[in-house]
Design a protein that fits this description.
11% strand; mainly alpha; single chain; 3 helices
Length: 71
């Protein structure tokens, strides 16, 4: 379970709120949004960006660009 794994491996400055359904919301600070987007992609469908809205839109554009490059 991804949420449990994240909870067990929190780094300094990260906060995890576990939800009753076993999922969780991870709050992180970041300075490099490109690196954060690539990190979130490692979790495939098990993660999404909720806030800030501009970063969520950036992820959508990133994914769309990936689909356009697919043969």
């Amino acid at each position: 379970d991804t949420a449990w794994m994240m909870q067990e491996n929190l780094r300094e400055g990260e906060n995890m709120k576990m939800l009753p359904d076993g999922t969780g919301i991870l709050t992180v600070s970041f300075t490099n949004h490109d690196a954060l987007l690539r990190w979130v992609l490692k979790f495939h469908r098990h993660a999404e960006i909720l806030d800030p809205p501009w970063l969520r839109k950036e992820m959508i554009h990133y994914l769309q660009a990936m689909l356009e490059k697919k043969p």
